[in-house]
Amino acid sequence: MVNVVVTGNAPYRENKHNTSRDIRDALPSLIKRPGHNDIVVLKYRRDSLDTYKDVLQMMEEMWKARRSSFLPKADSGHEDEEVDIGFAVHLGMTTAVPEFRAETIAYRDGYERPGEDGVYVDEEYFKDLGLPESLEPVFDIDAAVKKVKDQFPGILFRSSANPNQGFCEYRLFSSLAELELNHKSKRGKAVFLHVPADKSPEAIKKGADVATAYIAALVDGMSTSSEHSLSMSGHSRMGIQ
Fold this sequence. Notes:
two-stranded antiparallel sheet, alpha/beta, 8-stranded mixed β-sheet
C-alpha cells in the first residue's frame, strides 16, 4: 500500500474558483487495485494560498507527515502519528489552455509576481540554502503521461518543462527543496499536475479520474524502478561472485 498526498489551491487573483481543490476533494480516499498496490490518498487539510510565505510553511508542515495534517481525519489518538508518504502530487489550475499538464522540472529563480498579500519573493532565500537552479521529480513523467493517455484516448494531456514561473512552479520547487534539505530519503518524490479550469461537475469528475490514473501510473513507475534496481543489484552481485 502506498500513501500519496494531494494538495490543491485557493482561488487567486481574478479567478473566483480553483478546480485544483475541487479535483483534490473529488479524489477517492482509497484507490483499490486488485493485483497491484492499493493507494491511500491523503488530502492536505487546507488550500494552499498564493503567497510565498504560505507555500513554504505548507511544504514544511506537509512533509513532517503528521496524520493531523491530512484528510480524512485521523481516528482519535492517532493525530500525531507520522505517515510514510510515498510521494506528493500538487495540483494547480491552468487557465491558458484546457489541458492536463504534468511538469517535469521546477526552477529556483525568476518569480516576479507578488503574492496575494502584496509581498514579493525573497530572491536570495533558496540561493542562501545552497539549492541548485532547478530541481526535478525522480519519476518518469513522460511514461506516466503516456499511460494515462492510453486510458483516455483524445485527452489533452502532455508533459512540460516550462512551468511558467508562477506560484504553481514555486510550489513544486519548494516541495522538492524541502525534501532535498530535510528529507533526503524522499528526494524528488513530488510532482505537479496542472488541471483545466472547467468547473462543471462533468469536468471535475473527469479531472478526478485523470488525476487518479496519473497517480496510479506514478505508483506503477515506482514499482518498475524498484524492480529494475533490484535486478541491477543482483547482476552486480553475480559479477562479484
